[in-house]
Amino acid sequence: MHGASWSNASSGSVPRSVSSNQWLFVLLCIALLIGSAGCRKDEQNVPTTGTRMPYLPATGYSYALPVMPAHFSAQLQQTAASTMAGNPITDAGATLGRVLFYERGLSASRTISCGSCHHQEQGFSDASVRSTGHTGLRTRRNSMHLVNQFYSRRQFWDLRATTLEAQVLMPIQDAVEMGLTLDEATERLRALPYYPALFTEAFGDDSITTDRMALALAQFVRSIVSYRTRYDEGEANGFVDFTPLEVDGKNLFYNGATRCNQCHMTANFNNQDARNTGLDMEYTDNGRGEATGNSGDQGKFKIPSLRNVALTAPYMHDGRFNTLEEVVEHYNSGVQQHPNLDDRLTVDGTIGGEPLQMDLSANDKQALVAFLRTLTDEPLIADPRFSDPFQQ
Ligand code: HEC
Ligand code: HEC
Predict the structure, then answer these.
(1) Residues in Cβ contact with 214 at an 8 Å cutoff, skipping those fewer than 6 apart
(2) Can you tell me the distance from the alpha carbon of 311 to that of 377, in angstroms, rounded to the nearest whole number?
(3) How much is the pLDDT for 131?
(4) Average pLDDT over every residue of 215-239
(5) 222 burial type by CB count under 10 A (0-12 exposed, 13-18 middle, 19+ buried)
(6) Contact call for residues 358 and 344 (beta carbons, < 8 A)
(7) C-beta of 146 in contact with ligand 2 (< 6 A)
(8) What is the mean pLDDT of residues 63-71?
(9) Rounded distance, CA 231 to CA 241, Å?
(10) Ligand 2 pocket, residue 159 CB under 6 Å
(11) Best of 139, 302, 316, 386 to mutate for ligand 1, by most ligand atoms within 8 A of CB?
(12) Is pLDDT of 12 > 60?
């Protein structure tokens, strides 16, 4: 019985290679077996020929949010409370959200799920400059990583989504990404055998609606919380485990010469605004400016959190930089003149002023990169609660 739960009920379209997730699952099963809880499919998961079935643990995972360490400020916690208002995370809701997140049936061609462009091992981002959508066409922008979304009031590079509940429905309807209407999407779910039970667990009855789909997806995405990086350990223990280079990098990140932390603020290294970082003198994609129509917003993009940034290459809204070294060199010597260039990146501290040259030494640049590498959350990347349940 236990072996059967690892075998695949699908038609063979699932990759044969053994991913780290699969090993994790196997390890998890062994752990569960030792705990004699067993490792079997959810009772509702009676395999249907040709249908990919999600494999869920017999005892559901807990998605309760962690108590964030003290260096996550009270202000951040207020932001989180307000972005989550009205949609508290429940274990059953996030479990449904997990299955939906990895549901390829939510794309017109049944080939693409949210997870196709947001890979756990890449900090829920994508290694492609532009990601492949359901017909093989490429997205316009670089896929964003997903972490600590409860600290973000708006989503997308241009901040066009104003809640996560609204955001999660947009990729489904996007012509390039998944290409379904919302009615088609809920129809797809109704035709799959495992959803009635999952919706009932989450919402009390088996009615499958757009609203419930959005609530569950948002709960799952919000439950992807990063707070266990080496940087976080350092905040708790005075950075005793940091190398001298990492300490240098941390000091540089927070000093007035680089101004990194004046945009990548707080323990989440983000900010609610969009800013122009002087990537180009003229942008082909004007980001926030396209969303608002204001010339003063041209070339402005969301300030992304830097958590897991070592895993989320390529970088920037268009994926133009392949390495963190290239990103740091941009800030050091590559900032271009632009009427909206942020005042933190100009010599005289005025918007649109002459671009700042930071004149960082080779050691400074290495140090900044070393510090950015301390922001990787290994436990999150390995956490089975966020893995693809169809891939066991
Ligand atoms: C084909 C690739 C693709 C698919 C499929 C996809 N995304 Fe994305 N995702 C992207 C890209 C590209 C962006 C940035 C788009 C932009 O800014 O215009 C993005 C942005 C996001 C953001 C914004 C993050 C932030 O910090 O603002 C969230 C949240 C998100 N996606 C969640 C999802 C969910 C949930 C699904 C499934 C319902 C999904 N994505 C499906 C490529 C994809
Ligand atoms: C003026 C505000 C501002 C300052 C100062 C700033 N950043 Fe950024 N950072 C941004 C914005 C905005 C983006 C996204 C830009 C885009 O895609 O067009 C970004 C993107 C990045 C990225 C890529 C993240 C990703 O997921 O693609 C890294 C890494 C980064 N910054 C590191 C730094 C470092 C290191 C410093 C200091 C040397 C710094 N930033 C200073 C605003 C800023």
Answers:
(1) 165, 166, 168, 169
(2) 10
(3) 96
(4) 98
(5) buried
(6) no
(7) no
(8) 96
(9) 10
(10) no
(11) 139
(12) no
